[in-house]
Amino acid sequence: PSAMREVMVQVPNVGWDDIGGLDAAAEKLREGVELPLKNPKAFRRLGIRPAKGFLLYGPPGTGKTLLAKAVSKEAQANFIAIKSSDLLSKWYGESEQQIARLFARARQVAPCVIFIDELDSLVPARGTSAGEPQVTERVVNTILAEMDGLEELQSVVVIGATNRPNFVDPALLRPGRFDELIYVGVPDKPGRLHILGIHTARMPLDKDVDLAALAERTNRFTGADLEDLTRRAGLAALRGSLKAKTVTMANFETALIDTRASVTPEMEA
Ligand code: ATP
To answer: Which residues form a coiled coil (predicted)?
Structure first.
């Protein structure tokens, strides 16, 4: 039995236009990833060491995956995504082999972004781990060795993501590893309006729909919550009539009853 998978390389179809309200995070990624991947010669000429690893942290559903995809697309880089928990194989040596294949493939298809989600599941300590302690330790060490081996300007960048930055193994955060921390938080009111605009762009809205009022009333909603809200509003319109031609403010009112902010005040950094 083998948990080994083919390494899937994609060219993401998410761009900056699909992301609302994360201007500061987007700007940091642009500068840190897009600029060096697109202009390696300029970096070499000036002797600048570009970062190899970025850690996106913040509550679930705030757009971390979207950001990683968008920066890859805009940098015209390939994109390989993996969940940390998928790397934890109990078969001896298999995790290491899988990581080696992951990085080998990334070098082959460079420029390439490797996206590692759920980075916090690689912590062996205190029963928080999905895997066994020895396995997670070997996985972390293998990732570190691979990242240390990435030569500067080799055009492979690693982006990690976590909802629980406090649980990320400190060894992963040292210089030359995931040394750029980028907070991806819940959107503020203008951010929510932007996101509502994105997710209703292909929705025929009745003229009574007031997105600004909806943005006002959706404090602490994440991007994923807002997407859910627009979807539910659409469904409410269909429930009213299968012949519905527009989605109305009343449909959004119905949707609001069923949609809650998934982020509580305590979860905010
Ligand atoms: P997790 O931590 O659970 O992996 P995440 O932060 O990676 O979550 P995404 O997978 O990027 O979240 O977002 C989930 C979905 O929510 C997206 O596909 C998108 O539809 C919507 N979404 C989240 N954030 C935003 C945003 N800032 N702008 C537009 N849409 C968003």
So the answer is: none
- C-alpha 149 – ligand 1 centre gap (Å): 31
Pocket test for ligand 1, best of 65, 162, 183, 202 (most atoms within 8 A of CB): 65
Give the ligand 1 atom nearest the CA of 18: 29
Partners of residue 183 on adjacent β-strands:
57
- Give the pLDDT confidence of 133-152 residue by residue, as tens digits: 677 888 888 998 998 888 76
Q: How confident is the model at residue 1 (pLDDT cuts 50, 70, 90)?
A: very low
- Tokens read off for 141: 């060490």
Atom 8 (ligand 1): residue with closest C-alpha? 61
- Over residues 181-202, the pLDDT tens digits come to 999 999 999 999 999 999 999 9
Structure tokens at 33: 């990833």
Question: Which 3 state secondary structure label does DSSP give 262?
Answer: coil
Q: Tell me the CA–centroid distance for residue 66 and ligand 1, in Å.
A: 6
How far, in Å, from the CA of 64 to the mean position of ligand 1?
A: 6
Please work out whether the CB of residue 12 comes within 6 Å of at least one atom of ligand 1: no
Distances (CA, A) of 227 to 24, 86, 110, 191, 256: 21, 27, 33, 13, 12
For residue 172, the number of C-alpha atoms closer than 13 Å in the C-beta half-sphere is 30
**pLDDT value at position 247?**
97
The DSSP result for 41-110, as a single string, is HHHHHHT----SEEEEESSTTSSHHHHHHHHHHHTT-EEEEEEGGGG--SSTTHHHHHHHHHHHHHHHT-
pTM of the model: 0.90
DSSP helix/strand/coil, 202: coil
